[in-house]
Write a structure and sequence with these properties.
Elements lengths: L4 E5 L3 E7 L2 E8 L4 H14 L5 E8 L5 E5 L9 H10 L5 E8 L6 H20 L1 E14 L1 H13 L3 E7 L3 E8 L3 H11 L7 E9 L2
Antiparallel strand pairs: 1-7, 2-3, 3-6, 4-5, 4-6, 7-9, 7-10, 8-9
Length: 210
C-alpha cells in the first residue's frame, strides 16, 4: 500500500548542555533516505572534529522501515538507544539525531550518560519541532490575469498547495492537492476559469501539511 503521509523533523536544529564539564551538543535533521543519514553524520564529524563521541540514531520508512543507532565507544546502551527512543517517543518516521560529546574528564556512569544523551537529543528535537508531510498530486496550470486573484484567494482559503507562480502573457503556476482532494481541486479550477483552466499532471511530492 502506498504511503500517504509521514511525521518528520520540521527543520535542522541544535541544542546543547554541559554536565560535569562534559559538553553535549544535540543536532537533528529531517531525512528521507539512508544516504541522507550518512551524509548528515559525515558532515557532523567534519564540523566537530575534536569531539570524543558522535552518538546517533536515525530512522526512515522509505521505501521500508530502517533504523540504526550507535553508542560510538560509550558503554553499550547508554547513547544510541536513548537517542532512538527520543525519535520513537515523538512518533518521528523519518529523522536523524546526532549528539556530539566533548569529554570533560569526569565519568558520568551508565545512568548519567543515558540521561545526558537523551536530554541533548530531546532538546534538539524540541528546538526543531516535528511536522506531518503528506503526498500531494501536482499540476501545472495556466490562467488569464482576470481570474488569477480570485483563484489565488480560493486556493489559499481551501488550503491547496500553490507555488512557482510566473507572470508572462498569462499566469502560470504549480498547484497541488492530496489524493482525496484532487477532484475538489479540478472542480474549483473549472468553476473559476469557466472550463478554460487545464490541470496538467506534474507528478507527486511530499509536502508539509498546512
Amino acid at each position: 500500500m502506498q504511503e500517504e503521509s509521514y511525521i518528520s523533523i520540521a527543520r535542522e536544529a541544535s541544542w546543547e548542555c554541559t554536565i560535569k564539564r562534559s559538553r553535549f551538543i544535540g543536532i537533528c535533521v529531517p531525512i528521507v533516505s539512508e544516504e541522507d543519514a550518512g551524509l548528515f553524520l559525515e558532515r557532523i564529524r567534519e564540523e566537530y572534529p575534536a569531539a570524543r563521541h558522535y552518538v546517533y540514531a536515525w530512522k526512515t520508512n522509505s521505501p521500508y522501515l530502517i533504523q540504526k543507532y550507535s553508542d560510538d565507544g560509550e558503554p553499550q546502551g547508554t547513547g544510541g538507544r536513548p537517542v532512538l527512543d527520543v525519535l520513537e517517543n515523538a512518533n518521528v518516521d523519518r529523522g536523524a539525531i546526532c549528539v556530539v560529546r566533548y569529554f570533560g574528564g569526569i565519568l558520568l556512569g551508565t545512568g548519567g550518560l543515558a540521561r545526558a544523551y537523551s536530554q541533548a537529543a530531546a532538546g534538539a528535537l524540541e528546538e526543531a519541532g516535528i511536522k506531518q508531510f503528506q503526498r500531494y498530486q501536482l499540476f501545472s496550470l495556466e490562467v488569464d490575469y482576470s481570474v488569477y486573484d480570485k483563484l489565488n484567494a480560493r486556493l489559499e482559503a481551501a488550503a491547496f498547495f500553490q507555488d512557482e507562480v510566473e507572470f508572462t502573457s498569462k499566469v502560470k503556476l504549480l498547484v497541488g492537492a492530496s489524493s482525496e482532494r484532487v477532484d475538489e481541486l479540478h472542480l474549483l479550477v473549472q468553476d473559476l476559469t469557466a472550463g478554460s483552466g487545464k490541470l496538467l499532471a506534474q507528478g507527486e511530492r511530499f509536502l508539509p501539511v498546512p
